Amino acid sequence: MVALTSAAALLPCSATRMRRLGLFGLLGILLVRNVEGHEHHTDDIPKGEAISAEPLDSILWTHICIQILSFGIIFPTGMVLGIIRSKWHVPVQVAGTLLAVVGWFLGHAHKGRQFAPNIHASFAWILMLMLTAQVLIGIYLKLHLTKGLHSTARKYVVTAHGILGKTLPVVSWMQMLFGGITALGFCRGDHLGQCLAHFIMGSAFIGYGIILTILLIVGQLWLKRTGRSQEFFDSIVIAAWGCVNTFTEHQWGTAWVHNDIQHTSMGVVWWCAGLVGIWLSRKRGGRPKRNLLPGMVIFLTGWAMSAHPQHLPLSAMVHTSFGYTLMLAGLVRIIEISFVLRDKNTLSEDGTEPNSFQYLTPLLLCASGFLFMGATEEQMRLLSDAGVTHVSYVLILFSFAFLLFLFVNMLLHLYTTHAMPEIVKADAEAPRINGTANGHVRVPSESRLIRDAEEFELEGLMSDDESLEPPGAKRTQHVH
Predict the structure, then answer these.
(1) In sequence order, what DSSP letters do the residues of 442-459 get, joined into one string?
(2) Taking Cα atoms as reference points, which of 418, 363, 335, 423 lies closest to residue 83?
(3) How many CB atoms lie within 10 A of CB 282?
(4) Is the pLDDT of residue 331 over 70?
(5) 3-state SS, residue 288
(6) What Å distances lie between residue 285 and 289, 326, 342, CA to CA?
(7) Which of 5, 24, 285, 385 could pair with 138 as two cysteines, CB 3.0-4.6 Å apart?
(8) Which residues are within 8 A (CB) of 381 and not within 5 positions of it... i.e. 6 or more apart?
(9) What's the pLDDT band for 466 if we cut at 50, 70, 90?
(10) What is the pTM of this model?
(11) In this predicted model, what pLDDT tens digit does every residue of 257-284 receive, in sequence order?
(12) Where does 34-122 show beta strands of DSSP type E?
């Protein structure tokens, strides 16, 4: 939860808290009115263009760096700290909020390059409204109002706080993409359609890679609880996405072109293969079963994209690299299920010790996403004119994928060290004391692990006045 609970925790009494809360609200209104009064100049923008010829000035570069730091790093970290109920949650989110506010005003104070009305400026209001809502909800929760109507409303407010907090990183990702597009003046006019295709599909591959990483590290117990295999959910998404592509990639009633035919046929393959994957995801008795259909779809998609016709040699090479990377991701997934896991869900009983080979598929999917997002027509023209080779560009995009994958794993490590403490497992060859190896505690049962995980997740719905004991810890009752 991106719980941006501010300094209200330090307020001495309820009346003072409410007065200061009103002061914060009044200050926010004044700041918003001040920003609304600011207008971007567009005098130097040539007719028919989206940006002026001036370079980005130092103020705008500072705005970019600060917002990436706050929305891209600090807030996701604070979200995880909120989920594990860490004492550092509030300080981290307060720091992120202060930086975001500073970056917001810097974005309206820059000189240099001018911009026509754009999606980045319009969408910023949605992001800042979400952030403001999180701040106000955080302050409300920190007031510890639990009597009367507040006792009923509190659990719903906490739920809304969690939903907003987990949505904010996704919305922030969208806004950062809009910022990059706006800074370069891309994705307008005839370029809008292929821009949407590249950024939506590229983000989908990255999101798929992140979800696979989450399931790999912390989601195996959840999968077992659902009674479904991972391929069941993958196949449902593939089939649904295929249906959408089948009927949206071509403007029906107009002439067909080669790209329309290829994209539509790819959509047909997706929903056909997705239906097969759904059918094969269960055994005769109804138990979950692994299958290779999602990996095959990823491989086929990569093969098709590697042969996608392009106008520029650089674009053709980047698309080929994207296709090969996606093919490798599908092949690795097939090898993982067939030879590493041998149709099992995990190699360990509790699913907390993935094989190192299993990290390759989500990493390659993230790399595929960056490659596809970085292969729009305007980007390829800009790089081709600058003399950048496809090798250098592909390596840079892979570097972005490595950094994102590292950050995701760091956040998951932060979560697992608190929500899923490491289990000390007995060594079969170690000496035994009192029936256990070296006196180590016995490994908890799978049902115990699931119950502890559920208790930990439900802790966020409890009042802040309750103790913050780790999952599974015994609570003592005090008799007064």
Answers:
(1) PPPPHHHHHHHHHHHHHG
(2) 418
(3) 17
(4) yes
(5) strand
(6) 10, 34, 19
(7) 5
(8) 312
(9) very low
(10) 0.81
(11) 767 788 888 889 999 999 999 999 988 8
(12) none
